[in-house]
Amino acid sequence: MKLTALISLFAAASSVLAGTYTIPEDLPDGTYLFTLDADGNQITTLLNATNTDTATERERAYNWPAGTYTACPGGDGLKFSDFFDHAWNMFFNECYDSEVNLRYYTGALFSSYGTSKAYMCAWTPNICRPAEWAAAIDWMRNTCPGLSSNGFMETAFLQIPAWNKRYGYARNTASIC
């Protein structure tokens, strides 16, 4: 395949998510998948509304491909407890299921609880893996420690260009992909 064809294919895949998803203000807490239909209309699928139990297995190390980076976009912070006591676990548990069932996601997979959103953007079919999620959170928290006082935390994301995906956490009404 020619280099120009590969670049065009990557650009087309990348544009699928860029700025395409609108998160409704009144979206109830839960885990969702946003995708697009053939006409480019957003489809919202509720995957898991209330599972906030702590996952039992939390791997913390992962080898990231070259070019992976983290960013701290700033803006409104989110409540530490909303993220770590609820959204983190909801998202982790969805990833944990995918380890067993090898479910691939394309679109925006996210868990929303209170002020926070935990998410993965997949520009091509990707598995959400618990080890990746936990390691991504560790990297982001070490890189973006702002607003770590008064029970709030800074928003962040980990971009993984080689895998066409991003992990992150943000304010529940923030744009994510």
Automatic annotation (TrEMBL):
Keywords: Signal. The keyword Signal applies. Residues 1-18 form the signal peptide. This is WGS project CABT00000000 data, contig 2.3. The keyword Signal applies.
